[in-house]
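Researcher: Sequence of Sulfur carrier protein ThiS follows. Predict its structure.
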Amino acid sequence: MKLLVNNKETELTQGHTIAALAQQLGLPKQGVAIALHNRMVPRAEWENTVLNEGDSLVIIKAACGG
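Model: Prediction complete. Tokens:
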């Protein structure tokens, strides 16, 4: 299934949820937020949020700095 992740076409090869995408991309367990169609999805809902062909996601990683 093809998705747009941070405006880049990405192929989701296993599963159909945000949790499966996070695992496939090797995202860390903390410090990451994901928005589906510009709406933030709480981490508790990643396992149950089903993705569809062509969905648009934005992944934001927390960064430290000053």
